[in-house]
């Protein structure tokens, strides 16, 4: 169950608010950082941060000359720099920086700047001289930035992706250079500047060091573009860098928004900046800049992230150097859509302030965060929590208080009790005790379900006898006090493990001892984020013998677990960083409010995006109960072994297996499985209301229908030890097991990627290891 124990969710802390925009200023033409006056002006205008180049044109010219001179010497000896063989002459070494090469010097303001590495380097170049010098420039600038006290650096992204023009080699070189950068700037944060996708002829082409080799072929316009190459490159870089937590993306917003699937893909990545250049803007009739509705929606969505990306306005309007322009306070509610922005629009030259005031206006257009996105709840986004073990451990009062903060779950339980009691009366069902329906709340905690059962009885006018069974000795004290203070002594409180409870005591005398009766309605809430992961099936099996036969019912009557493969690079990085000190980090099914995730599969006929793994129904058949008893007492003839070594198999009926196929249209990477659950608390027994149910659900597509706004449970995440890359049009085959050896329960999971080659042939293109939570199993 979630939220966790350390952070207490405070209901009512719901002051409506919008995400705040943190806006930066970047001018790629700059040769030096802003002066103090310029910086002050930018801050006064409403910017929150600025970028600075680290070196200047003097340095650039020096480096270009060095490369040109060296290539000329090589040419004379018949080497063009593309050979990988050892050459007679040593490759050039960059001389150190001189005061003429940079205008950045340590100062109070410099600490707050974001450094932009020279965009003219080309570590991807197939020419070894150019890639080597590019790496040297990179390292030199990182070192110098570090010396000056700069904390964040933007790295111009790779100039080419893997697919062609020596791109694979180039990307390997680039990724290796970034890995080195992380070592050199060991306390710096790095942002790789990536386009969302490679737009044909988008933006300004920077004249890189490679230009000394001669003209590069122009990019072909009009050809069908592969939307995922830029993401692929990013995935390559961060994989080589082992998902370093100091490596982020500065994502360039395109001119034309791509399909949602690609937007969702980037949503899951560690976005630090969204950079917006002139190409993304359109102009309204009076000539003011605006963004299309698609751009706006994408920004609004990304701003819902816990770590809201910062917006970097790049090359927008005049430099702002020394200006005292004030933000424009005019209304922007007439900004047109992309379609509306026609040629007729008057193009006045927009100033930096026009763009800034537009983005500030956009900030106010965000719909206020709903109550469920309060600060407290937002802080749970993608935050890993170890699952609770309410059976093996005794929960603290604060944890119960967190559960009790969510009324939705209790409302649904109360509705289920009302239905059950009303139908009891309507159907004239027998009761196990004269004149009263006997209810037991198994695992009562601090008693909220007891209160709801009593309320339901009052509401329906059905007389009840209520028992509260709880094994936590501390919660038992609380229950006794509740009985005195709140329930007027109407509840019989028992401190015991429900599996050892003999049932409600009907009468007791010295001669006969206690005489035990039965329970008509057994209420429990022993569900975890994956339904059965807090051992509800095992506990309910153990108490089933007290249920009246055949009419006794369980609330819940059933529950199902659901799965979907997801990309969640941030969680993967988090788990990887824990692994050195927490050896079971990859074996743990984590409870987590999954947020920055991408469902990598698509819903297609016959294959849902989130699929059911298995189901548990209560009560279980009598014959199964008898079988358990026989196995436990060694009465089974034959091998005598359960499916696990050394086990009698007494809990084997609670093991499960599923094999699910998920269809992926685009290529991607999977980091693990997201798990959800649904439960039917009560299903109508009236012929006239057949199929009517009271349910709860955390299934993202169904929660709103079944238990809207329920936050009692966060999803569960089953991690893979290694990210699994898969090509477009693959199928992810997921095998999942619920395993048991009679003393504990754990899960095992395996993900394989398969691809069709021809009409009837599939080949395996990758597989995860067989993962298991056996080392952190739930103890029965
Ligand atoms: C998830 S909490 C629910 C508490 C409460 N019913 C509620 O909804 O707020 C589960 C409770 O069941 C108790 N519990 C778990 N296994 C039990 C068992 N075998 N016998 C008795 N109580 C058990 C735990 O101590 C805990 O109080």
Automatic annotation (TrEMBL):
Residues 46-362 form the PRMT5 TIM barrel domain. Coiled coil: none annotated. Residues 376-555 form the PRMT5 arginine-N-methyltransferase domain. The record marks 403 as: Critical for specifying symmetric addition of methyl groups. The keyword Transferase applies. S-adenosyl-L-methionine binds at residues 400, 409-410, 470, 497-498. Residues 77-98 are annotated as: Disordered. One of its GO terms (biological process) is methylation. One of its GO terms (cellular component) is cytosol. Residues 558-765 form the PRMT5 oligomerisation domain. Keywords: Methyltransferase, S-adenosyl-L-methionine, Transferase. It comes from the Eukaryota. The keyword Transferase applies. The active site is at residues 525, 534. GO terms for molecular function: protein-arginine N-methyltransferase activity. Belongs to the class I-like SAM-binding methyltransferase superfamily. PANTHER family: PROTEIN ARGININE N-METHYLTRANSFERASE 5. This is Protein arginine N-methyltransferase.
